[in-house]
Automatic annotation (TrEMBL):
Ranges where the CarD-like/TRCF RNAP-interacting domain occurs: 1-111
Organism: Clostridium omnivorum
Matches recorded under Gene3D superfamilies: 2.40.10.170, CarD-like, C-terminal domain
Protein name as it appears in the record: CarD family transcriptional regulator
Taxon lineage: Bacteria, Bacillati, Bacillota, Clostridia, Eubacteriales
Pfam families xref list: CarD_C
Length: 158
């Protein structure tokens, strides 16, 4: 069960904090809803507790796991797909899993391509998306701002 103050991550929306857990009666059914204040986009999200799995909602990672995942960004990729359209699809699949490790792999690959001569506009959108998703989670894990989290990520990419 989720509680007020829990730090959570949703693959499509990024990280946030549960600000309300509330019972509501809708269509004569008693239902529990959770409210999440998201870090990205200054949005709030209300989710029925029975739909949490559909959103792939999970608790944010531990500091130890986050540090391990961030180190992935500093490594050199072993294989990068040559066709950008296939790479784009693979990156999107990894991002929608909601796994911090996979998201850091996408960042690593895109930082590598960026250094080697740039990335296509479509992949640049993916780059910004995954950078902010990871930054939102890092922000909550280390209790820093999103800007500081982006700088922390960029330091690993050097």
């Amino acid at each position: 069960m989720l509680n007020v103050g829990d730090k959570v991550f949703i693959p499509i929306f990024g990280a946030g904090i549960v600000y309300i857990v509330e019972n509501k009666i809708i269509a004569d059914k008693d239902s529990v809803f959770i409210g999440i204040k998201l870090l990205l986009g200054n949005m709030s999200l209300i989710i029925p507790i029975n739909k949490v799995k559909d959103y792939k909602l999970r608790n944010v990672e531990t500091i130890e796991k986050a540090e391990k995942c961030l180190k992935i960004i500093a490594t050199e990729p072993t294989i990068i797909e040559k066709k950008w359209s296939k790479r784009y699809r693979q990156s999107n699949e990894k991002i929608t899993e909601g796994n911090l490790e996979k998201e850091c792999e996408v960042l690593r690959d895109l930082y590598f391509l960026k250094k080697k001569g740039g990335i296509p506009p479509g992949e640049y959108k993916i780059f910004n998306k995954v950078l902010h998703l990871v930054a939102s989670e890092i922000s909550l894990i280390f209790d820093i701002t999103i800007s500081d989290a982006c700088r922390k990520i960029e330091n690993f990419a050097r």
